[in-house]
Amino acid sequence: MISPPADDLTLGIDPGTANLGWALVSGDAQPNLVEWGVIHSPRRSSLGERLEAIDKGLRQILASHPVTDLAIERQVFVKNVTNAASVFCACGVIMLAAHQNGLRVAEYTPTQIKAAVTGSGNAGKRDVQDWLTRILECKTPITPDHAADAAAAAICHIHNRDIERGLGRRIA
Asked: Topology of 9-17+34-165 in CATH?
């Protein structure tokens, strides 16, 4: 007898070089928060050392969990070109890890993520936190903020994936 396929497991990512937020969310109609955290890099480390820490952290997560999808917050920068360049490097490490592990990858803007979680693309961090707590049925808010943002990216992806699969909730 063939076992039914396990729920898809989405790794949400809030990219950064000093603090990269991540969250594992399973399920479809009712998402379930599996695990979350932040990959930290030492303050005074070089960009190469920070990228290595990201690579090592992602390898540990992907080796420990049967991840199928990766949802990443698309970076939109208006100021601080130096910071943007380093975050784009981090995104390269993330995309490479996803490719090497055969993950389906989707990128979402902050506005798309906020809208998927709260219904408003202009929602503040507190609103996103409140809605995440409800959607994921958490007893306390997800902390730190980087991990909460990663969970929101995963929720956005699950919502969009369900719609693409025709599993979205239908209005009677």
From this structure: Nucleotidyltransferase; domain 5 (3.30.420)
